[in-house]
Design goal:
The protein is mainly alpha-helical. The protein has 8 helices and no strands. α4 packs across α6. The relative contact order is 0.22.
Length: about 200
């Protein structure tokens, strides 16, 4: 039975969130989630890159690697496609959105090594998704990542103004918040699940 792409989209956002169920993309998630505006910009960039590279990697995998029996090259090829696409996005942001480009700083080129982006392409192959399923999974994963980073940024901005015990300041409270958010997202697991 083939899973409906809409189900995959919602599952990728809530029940199979890349951050909270697979722990992929944590580095930039923790580092950039201090301000809501920066988090939103990075979330949009990650969503765009995940969706676009999922489409590109699907096409490359099914129309180049499989016919040539080079499936074993998928890791290298997927990484090359992701790196090239992120470089293109970086150049476009620098040219047309310089404020966002400078706000993201070093984390923009680090989208290339965001393991959530590679993870989506690999899950697409492992789960044998069709083209529409792959697009839905890529878009949902990006939206789920964006939702997670925005929620964390909002919480971190709120607690910045409050007193926190010294031992919990900085990474300590951030990791506790992430753990609680992951527990909250598991509440969605009864709604829809993809494997």
């Amino acid at each position: 039975m083939e899973i409906n792409p809409i189900v995959i989209l919602f599952a990728a956002i809530f029940t199979n969130n890349m951050i909270f169920s697979n722990f992929l993309g944590m580095c930039s998630f923790i580092a950039v989630s201090k301000e809501i505006n920066t988090s939103l910009g990075l979330g949009q960039a990650v969503t765009f890159v995940i969706t676009a590279t999922t489409i590109l990697n699907y096409l490359v995998y099914h129309y180049v690697l499989v016919p040539l029996q080079l499936e074993y090259m998928r890791f290298i090829v997927f990484i090359i496609v992701i790196a090239a696409f992120v470089q293109l996005v970086e150049m476009i942001l620098e040219r047309y959105m310089p404020n966002l480009y400078y706000a993201l700083g070093i984390f923009l080129p680090l989208i290339t090594v965001n393991c959530a982006i590679l993870g989506v392409s690999l899950f697409m192959v492992i789960r044998k998704y069709s083209f529409l399923q792959s697009v839905a999974f890529g878009l949902g994963s990006g939206l789920g990542w964006t939702l997670a980073i925005l929620a964390l940024a909002g919480i971190r901005q709120k607690i910045k103004k409050n007193r926190i015990p010294r031992g919990l300041e900085g990474p300590g409270i951030t990791l506790i918040i992430i753990g609680l958010m992951a527990l909250a997202f598991t509440g969605f697991s009864g709604i829809v699940q993809i494997q």
